[in-house]
Amino acid sequence: MGIVVVAAGRGERAGASKDGPKQYRTIGGRPVIVHTLEKFASWELACHIVVVIHPDDEALFAKVAGLVQSGVPIDAVHGGATRQQSVLVGLRHLRGNDLSHVLIHDAVRPFFDHALLDRIAGALLAGVPAVLPAMPVADTLKRADLDGTVLDTVSRSHLYAAQTPQSFAFEPILAAHEKAAAANLADFTDDAAIAEWAGIPVRIVEGLADNAKLTVKRDIAMADSRLSGQTLPDVRTGNGYDVHQLEAGDGVTLCGVFIPHDQKLKGHSDADVALHALTDALLATCGAGDIGDHFPPSDPQWKGAPSRIFIEHAAKIVRERGGTIMNADVSLIAEAPKVGPHRDEMRSKLSEFLGITIDRCSVKATTNETIGFVGRREGIAAIATATVVYRSI
């Protein structure tokens, strides 16, 4: 996939600095743009990066480019007078590289992660032509007149705050930008708006609470404080435990994987004891109650429901509260069926449900040495641990 990083802005709202525009200012000992470029350069699906810079910033960019560790080509081109024009320059530069998709990102959004990029890529590779990472609007919205008098309260239902990288099938978004330029339309606020205007369907995927744009001087100071270790990292660990009774049946579902067996787990939903325990572990990291608070077993709508609904809901709550899921570990306690042959598929499912890489997902199993209800094959138990890092600024 191609990457266009837009870095031609002047950043007047961030104030003057000897380091130049805000994308070249230092946070955590390195320029903002270096953090951004290295995040893309270390992503396994990135194959070509083009950085669109201001003509006056050639020396600045040449200096920081040497700090970027990258195994993929990184080119610099001069941008235009507006962001829209700069993006078109970047897209034109990538033309001819046989790219299927392109991600367009603001240089001054350094706090994204590979999990977000993987969510975007998953949608693109599934055939979605345009993908917009976004977060539901959490603040109450007011409409006011010119003198600041409130006219009414705007419902925030179905409203989202757009982020980048906004990502597209390459040829359609290039054609849409060319068409807008030919029509002298220059008032689009982002690339998704151009796609909408061109009739390209845009799909929202869950963004990242940390993925904020560094706009004013205070944003840069807070980012520097965060990366310089002046604040303690907010690392939280949650634990979850669940058990379900076994009864005669044709198989059990564990970590989202159905395993044929001569018994099944009894429960209101699909009784996936592993996902239930992990759901509680995630909710525990932000004090959001437990699975029963969100999905009461007395509610008939959850009868037979797949437990991926529960785990994805918990992951969404964590992200909305500023958390980044770092690790998920599940221990299954059962005499049967054998978990080992299905472990990798279970880890893959956890990776999919949580939006994290598979190396951050662990599934283990042990027996109870024929002791107790587990030993008598009356039930299966699960213990889960989740590690989440929350924003400290």
How would you portray this structure in words?
This protein is of the alpha/beta class. The protein has 2 domains: 2-227, Spore Coat Polysaccharide Biosynthesis Protein SpsA, Chain A; 234-390, 2-C-methyl-D-erythritol 2,4-cyclodiphosphate synthase (60s Ribosomal Protein L30, Chain: A), CATH 3.30.1330.50. The protein is built from 12 helices and 19 strands. The chain has helices spanning 32-41, 58-65, 83-94, 114-125, 170-182, 191-197, 217-227, 273-284, 291-294, 308-320, 343-354, 372-375, and strands at residues 2-7, 26-27, 30-31, 48-53, 74-78, 101-106, 130-136, 141-144, 150-154, 160-162, 166-169, 203-206, 234-248, 251-254, 257-260, 263-265, 323-333, 361-366, 379-390. The strands form 5 sheets. Strands 1, 4, 5, 6, 7, 10, 11 and 12 form an 8-stranded mixed sheet that branches. Helix 2 (58-65) links the parallel strand 4 and strand 5. Helix 5 packs across helix 6 (191-197) and helix 8 (273-284) packs parallel to helix 10 (308-320). It is elongated and about 75 Å long. Keywords: Isoprene biosynthesis, Lyase, Metal-binding, Multifunctional enzyme, Nucleotidyltransferase, Transferase. Residues 236-388 form the 2-C-methyl-D-erythritol 2,4-cyclodiphosphate synthase domain. GO terms for molecular function: 2-C-methyl-D-erythritol 2,4-cyclodiphosphate synthase activity; 2-C-methyl-D-erythritol 4-phosphate cytidylyltransferase activity; metal ion binding.
